[in-house]
Amino acid sequence: MGDRDEAVETIQREMAAFARRARAAAARMHPELSLVSYTLLAHLDDRPGSRATDLAAEFLLDKSTVSRQVSGLEQLGFVERRPDPRDHRVQVLHPTPAGAAVLAAATAARREAFRGRFAGWDEADLDRFASYLVSFNEAAADQRAPEDSSAVSAAASPGQGSAPGR
């Protein structure tokens, strides 16, 4: 296997380990709030009034998965459905005060955990790592199906920096 193939294999293995740790950490910080639920709740906190179909499109999830997650968040009292003011046939989702509070607590705990992990990193390495992650996620978004390209453009954050060579 060549150096590039070995590097890609290492990246894949380490990202899988990261995903496992992220799920486990999410379960410890708030047992009722899975990583997917946390992500959906954070999105609703940033963009209240989103529809479940918006969440499915944004996160490339099946509508049934989003429906189950949203139902769970509703049962916990973290999300509520309201009629869309523009079209009363449509339901939009909003975090409740309890949802906003649990999200804030989980976000603070996660931020503190990451600060601890990066405590020994110098600023330049941390900036480079952040830039590489942004580039990786932008490349993944670029590989979405053509019908998703408008959502990708709308979700892109300007001024996020890029990895060397881009």
From TrEMBL:
<dbReference type="Pfam" id="PF12802">
    <property type="entry name" value="MarR_2"/>
</dbReference>
<dbReference type="InterPro" id="IPR000835">
    <property type="entry name" value="HTH_MarR-typ"/>
</dbReference>
<feature type="domain" description="HTH marR-type">
    <location>
        <begin position="4"/>
        <end position="138"/>
    </location>
</feature>
<dbReference type="GO" id="GO:0003700">
    <property type="term" value="F:DNA-binding transcription factor activity"/>
</dbReference>
<feature type="region of interest" description="Disordered">
    <location>
        <begin position="143"/>
        <end position="166"/>
    </location>
</feature>
<dbReference type="InterPro" id="IPR011991">
    <property type="entry name" value="ArsR-like_HTH"/>
</dbReference>
<protein>
    <submittedName>
        <fullName>MarR family transcriptional regulator</fullName>
    </submittedName>
</protein>
<dbReference type="InterPro" id="IPR036388">
    <property type="entry name" value="WH-like_DNA-bd_sf"/>
</dbReference>
<dbReference type="GO" id="GO:0006950">
    <property type="term" value="P:response to stress"/>
</dbReference>
<feature type="compositionally biased region" description="Low complexity">
    <location>
        <begin position="148"/>
        <end position="166"/>
    </location>
</feature>
<dbReference type="InterPro" id="IPR036390">
    <property type="entry name" value="WH_DNA-bd_sf"/>
</dbReference>
<dbReference type="InterPro" id="IPR039422">
    <property type="entry name" value="MarR/SlyA-like"/>
</dbReference>
